[in-house]
């Protein structure tokens, strides 16, 4: 999870519109039915590629723990990793509510959203253990 507000641009606007509604959007190829990551450029063929709401669930396929030193020698440990969404694409994320000492490999997770910043801030997706 970033420690600063994220700002949308033209390429990310539709994705962040979805996160504001509590939806994690993926891109679907209307010809093959394949799901692609949200970063896929749908402008290459807007008739073929559309944004759709994902189930918001997946499985941890890789994880690690970031150690961040705070003031007065305090160390904050944040689990981060890669989730394979149930639709297939992978998403890099954090697991801020997970125990940093736990083995997260294979854990089932669900998307959640946190707004970082003021009124203009975006809802950022992260994952929690189911």
How is the secondary structure organized here?
Elements: H1 13-20, E1 25-29, E2 35-36, E3 49-53, E4 57-69, E5 75-85, E6 90-94, E7 108-115, E8 123-129
Antiparallel strand pairs: 1-2, 1-3, 4-5, 4-7, 5-6, 7-8
Can you walk through the features of this model?
This protein has 130 residues and is mainly β. It has one helix and eight strands. The strands form two sheets. The chain has a five-stranded antiparallel sheet. It starts with 12 loop residues before the first helix and ends with a strand. 21% of the residues are buried.
Give the gist of this structure.
With 130 residues, the protein is mainly beta.
Q: Main traits of this protein?
A:
globular, 8 strands, mainly beta, five-stranded antiparallel beta sheet, three-stranded antiparallel beta sheet
The arrangement of helices and strands along the chain is HEEEEEEEE
Judging from the principal axes of the Cα atoms, what is the shape? globular
The helix content, as a percent range, equals under 10%
Oligomeric state of the chains in view: single chain
Rg measurement, Å: 16 Å
Report the strand count.
Answer: 8
What structural class do you assign from the helix and strand content? mainly beta
List unreliable stretches of 5+ residues: none
Major beta sheet, strand line-up: 6-5-4-7-8
Taken as a percent bin, the fraction of beta residues is: 35-45%
Mean pLDDT: 93
Largest β-sheet summary: 5 strands, antiparallel
Can you count the helices? 1
Distance between the termini: 19 Å
């Amino acid at each position: 999870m970033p420690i600063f507000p994220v700002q949308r641009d033209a390429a990310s606007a539709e994705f962040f519109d979805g996160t504001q509604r509590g939806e994690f959007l993926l891109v679907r190829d209307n010809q093959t039915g394949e799901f692609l990551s949200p970063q896929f450029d749908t402008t290459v063929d807007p008739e073929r590629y559309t944004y759709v709401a994902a189930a918001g669930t997946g499985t941890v396929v890789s994880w690690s723990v970031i150690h961040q030193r705070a003031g007065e020698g305090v160390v904050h440990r944040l689990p981060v990793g890669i989730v394979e969404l149930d639709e297939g694409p992978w998403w890099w994320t954090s697991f801020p509510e997970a125990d940093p000492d736990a083995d997260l490999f294979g854990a089932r997770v669900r998307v959640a959203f946190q707004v970082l910043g003021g009124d203009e801030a975006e809802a950022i997706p992260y994952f929690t253990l189911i």
